[in-house]
């Protein structure tokens, strides 16, 4: 179940496909960004604003966001918790529904 997370300016990504959210200011992050750009794996969702976070996706793409890391993490965590809860309790919910039918 893909839960979408807003990363700013009307752009969204699937919460369960995010591996990491990193700061764009470190030398390794800048190197990752350059490598992703050269390999056509960079998605710029900043709308020309300053990059405040880099999302590393499970597809090996990097997504640039103008939203602060802390804000993104607050948006991502509830989505993942809900998806995890639903996955863990899907069988229980199906049994309950079947018992009521």
UniProtKB/TrEMBL annotation:
<comment type="similarity">
    <text>Belongs to the RemA family.</text>
</comment>
<protein>
    <recommendedName>
        <fullName>Putative regulatory protein ENS29_03130</fullName>
    </recommendedName>
</protein>
<dbReference type="Pfam" id="PF04025">
    <property type="entry name" value="RemA-like"/>
</dbReference>
<dbReference type="InterPro" id="IPR007169">
    <property type="entry name" value="RemA-like"/>
</dbReference>
């Amino acid at each position: 179940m893909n839960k979408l997370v807003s990363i700013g300016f009307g752009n969204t990504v699937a919460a369960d496909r995010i591996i990491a959210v990193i700061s764009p200011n470190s030398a390794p992050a800048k190197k990752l960004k350059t490598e992703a750009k050269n390999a056509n794996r960079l998605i710029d969702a900043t709308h020309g604003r300053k990059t405040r976070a880099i999302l590393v996706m499970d597809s090996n793409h990097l997504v640039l966001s103008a939203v602060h890391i802390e804000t993104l993490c607050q948006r991502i965590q509830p989505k993942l918790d809900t998806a995890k809860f639903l996955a863990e309790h899907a069988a229980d919910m199906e049994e309950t529904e079947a018992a009521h039918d």
